[in-house]
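Section 5.1 Outputs to date
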Amino acid sequence: MSTHFKALAKRTNPDTIAIFPLAGAVLLPGCELPLNIFEPRYLNMIDDALKGDRLIGMVQPTTDDDERSSLEGLNKIGGLGRIMQFAESEDDRYMVVLKGLKRFRILDKADTNTPYAQARVNYEGFEADVDVHDGPLTPEAFKTQKGERGALTMAMKSYAQTLGVRLDWQSLKEIPLERLVDQAAMISPFSSSDKQSLLEAQTHSERRRLLIGLMHLHSDTSLYTGGSSDDTILQ
């Protein structure tokens, strides 16, 4: 499956894409993003995507007003996703899951008459994103990343304790480090600006360091001392 997605991400370079603005939601390459769609113009967007190449561009707004439709008040960098799962509810909502292919940069508004915004984009500077789809070639237990992973685990435990979240630490050990960083960056309840910084990080190392810093910044260190008793609480 990873080989398929790498080839798909490499050859998928649409000049124009539909834009779905959503605060607090970023889509990183190789990760999945579930969405609950209910606004009429975005239901229309999903209908159109399903008739075509199933591509959606996720972008965070920088404003709360409705200028998002004209691409004003949007961040310029977003994530291109392909609809992997689709379901329709009895109350006329769509539940979809997007698979991140690669990042893009908005150039300007496309000349279209759809009720949702479309943008002209390019992918310059994000060529390495396709390599994420290679997947792990070596079992995680044999990788020499213990120091890097240990620092992330410590930050995650402190942050999870602050949030009152229970995590399956044993299962997390099996997730490759880069994928764990990306998934944590997507689901952590940081501000939109913090999430945008994580999205725009040039390398995984940069994203990992930023993620660790944000987790420590937003943790209540008085709740976690790093002892084994905390591990028992959070497992």
